[in-house]
Amino acid sequence: MLNRIVLMGRLTANPELKSTTTGKSVTSFSIAVERNYNKPGEERKVDFFNVVCWNYTAEFVCHYFAKGNMIALEGKLQSRTYQANDGSTRYVTEIVADTVSFTGERVQKANNNKDSSSTTSEQPPLPSQPDFENMPLDDDLPF
């Protein structure tokens, strides 16, 4: 069986970090993903997907992403049911994201020390990747 989904879209609201009763970090948010095609003369259509992240991934999203930011994520599609307060059964389909990443888009971040209308183009630091090392530039590369 295979259940993998890869999406890239924009957050529709600021993610909010919450904790379960056992202390696990969790956040849920939705992203807007534009379709790759549109009919001539029509606006491009957008699909909205609900996403859930747990533990470190939830903390990462809440720390580095905000409404309107582009996000890339990979995870699995999951459905569940629950009983609403009125006794009816509700069905939910959502993406449980295993990994999230930046898309390379420059983020405009508000500077709290200055006037709220001024912005800087600071990019949050990328996670360190100790498995990679710089290669010397050499003209004898086989490609």
Describe the protein in words.
With 143 residues, the chain is mainly beta. Helices cover 7% and strands 41% of the residues. The chain is built from one helix and eight strands. It has one helix at residues 55-64; strands at 5-11, 18-19, 25-34, 46-54, 70-83, 89-101, 109-110, 119-120. The strands form two sheets. It has a five-stranded mixed barrel. Strand 7 (109-110) and strand 8 form a beta hairpin. The longest helix has 10 residues, at 55-64. The radius of gyration is 19 Å and the shape is globular. It starts with a strand and ends in a 23-residue tail after the last strand. The model is unreliable at 110-123 (pLDDT under 50).
Q: Strand order, biggest sheet? A: 1-3-4-6-5
User: Can you write the helix and strand succession as a string?
Assistant: EEEEHEEEE
Gyration radius, rounded: 19 Å
Supply the helix-strand structural class: mainly beta
Number of strands: 8
Short description:
With 143 residues, the protein is mainly β. The chain has 1 helix and 8 strands; from the N terminus they run E-E-E-E-H-E-E-E-E. The chain is globular, with a radius of gyration of 19 Å.
